[in-house]
């Protein structure tokens, strides 16, 4: 028995290339719409003597959400045999970017829509960029409106060639290219009879083949150290290392290494609030453990299991930041970076790219304004331990504090060498 899964996805592409139509199709063809909704929308169209569009289904659901009729705001769903899909608001929206960068919600896969007749547009390339910046690496490129180009295989192949060339440059490998017609329903939920030359998957088959992220409990063990407490009981003094487990699992007897110090010991006992002297404790829980050695550890270090993936240790890194501050993020200015339980002085060494949420323009700038996403190199006052977003999102996530207020959030994409003059 396998329980049903959820998967959050996003759908991106140039305006009018057919995103809403494809979503409408997915909902209708999987029978995921609320009872009577399809008929109601069709009836409405008839009454107003306009042709029915699948895109209207999405509008109708959004209206309901706006009126508070359906419970889940700004989300829509469709079901397949194995999963419930949640479609997150698309990257043109500030909330989506903010949630993705700060980790409030994550799309695990993306559909990137390109109009077969219009071909690759500037926005198609920006969206590719954005997905790669956000670390979404399960991407299917949907070549839509194939009905408008006579279901021509050559046109489909030309788009693959042109777009793959671009994606390669930014290190993105799409999982698939699928020729569809959202309007007619070709290759969305049902295999098309109009494109016998296409032997690949439908959009729905592709979605079901995307992989869910592994549960955090199966990831490497990470516990940012919140505090170290000393207990003395009948002359026996011991230190308890306390924190909340971000990922993975720790058990009595495990070899533990603390980073960035690199100090090593073994777990002697575990203290927890939810159980009496448990043998192990896992992600999401507060935990305290005693050690077999009396080593000196401070708040801000990360406890890691010796036999698992090592964290990164550096004072310099390439990051993607979503900026919320009233004042722009400025080169060279002093800020405080908080990651896990560590707090550390920092500054921005370089702003490599800035994307504006509304136009997704890609510009070189010396400042990052509120609601912009930027790729920045940070230099910290001291080395810290962290993970890369592609390995372990939870310990790659940080916030930037400006003048006692959280002014931005981000994830670490790449470790860079410490600056020579600081080593
Ligand atoms: P969005 O802005 O990306 O959400 O695009 P929409 O889904 O609203 O579609 C824009 C227009 O393209 C609408 O008039 C749709 O009817 C039309 N459209 C969408 N998909 C197809 C398709 O596969 N074939 C044709 N011929 N028109 C389509």
From TrEMBL:
Residues 4-216 form the Tr-type G domain. GO terms for biological process: sulfur compound metabolic process. GO terms for molecular function: ATP binding; GTP binding; GTPase activity; kinase activity; sulfate adenylyltransferase (ATP) activity. Keywords: ATP-binding, GTP-binding, Kinase, Nucleotide-binding, Nucleotidyltransferase, Transferase. Its EC number is 2.7.7.4. This is sulfate adenylyltransferase. The chain holds residues 13 to 435 of 610 of the full protein.
């Amino acid at each position: 028995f396998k329980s049903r899964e959820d998967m959050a996805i996003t759908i991106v592409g140039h305006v009018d290339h057919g995103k809403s139509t494809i979503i409408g199709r997915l909902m209708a063809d999987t029978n995921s719409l609320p009872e009577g909704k399809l008929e109601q929308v069709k009836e409405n169209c008839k009454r107003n003597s306009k042709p029915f569009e699948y895109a209207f289904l999405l509008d109708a659901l959004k209206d309901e959400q706006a009126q508070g009729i359906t419970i889940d705001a700004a989300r829509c769903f469709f079901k397949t045999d194995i999963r419930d899909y949640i479609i997150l608001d698309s990257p043109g929206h500030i909330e989506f970017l903010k949630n993705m960068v700060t980790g409030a919600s994550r799309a695990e896969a993306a559909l990137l829509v390109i109009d077969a007749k219009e071909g690759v547009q500037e926005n198609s390339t920006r969206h590719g960029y954005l997905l790669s910046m956000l670390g979404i690496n399960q991407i299917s490129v949907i070549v839509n409106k194939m009905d408008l180009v006579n279901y021509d295989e050559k046109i489909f192949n030309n788009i693959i060639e042109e777009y793959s060339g671009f994606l390669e440059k930014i290190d993105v490998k799409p999982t698939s290219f699928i020729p569809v017609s959202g309007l007619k329903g070709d290759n969305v939920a049902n295999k098309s009879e109009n494109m016998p030359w296409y032997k690949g998957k439908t959009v729905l088959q592709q979605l079901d083949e995307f992989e869910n992220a592994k549960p955090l409990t199966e990831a490497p063990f990470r516990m940012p150290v919140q505090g170290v407490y000393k207990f003395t009981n009948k002359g026996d003094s011991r230190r308890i290392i306390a924190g909340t487990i971000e990922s993975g699992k720790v058990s009595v007897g495990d070899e533990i290494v603390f980073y960035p110090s690199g100090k090593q010991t073994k777990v002697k006992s575990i203290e927890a609030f939810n159980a009496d002297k448990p043998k192990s404790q896992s992600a999401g829980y507060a935990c305290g453990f005693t050690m077999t050695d009396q080593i000196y550890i401070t708040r801000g270090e990360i406890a890691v299991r010796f036999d698992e993936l090592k964290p990164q240790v550096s004072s310099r890194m390439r990051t993607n930041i979503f900026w919320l501050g009233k004042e722009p993020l400025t080169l060279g200015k002093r800020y405080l970076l908080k990651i896990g339980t560590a707090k550390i002085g920092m500054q921005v060494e370089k702003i490599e790219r800035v994307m504006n949420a509304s136009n997704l323009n890609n510009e070189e700038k010396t400042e990052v304004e509120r609601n912009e996403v930027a790729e920045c190199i940070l230099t910290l006052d001291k080395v810290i331990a962290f993970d890369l977003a592609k390995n372990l999102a939870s310990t790659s996530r940080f916030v930037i504090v400006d003048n006692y207020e959280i002014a931005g959030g981000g994830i670490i994409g790449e470790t860079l060498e410490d600056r020579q003059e600081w080593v």
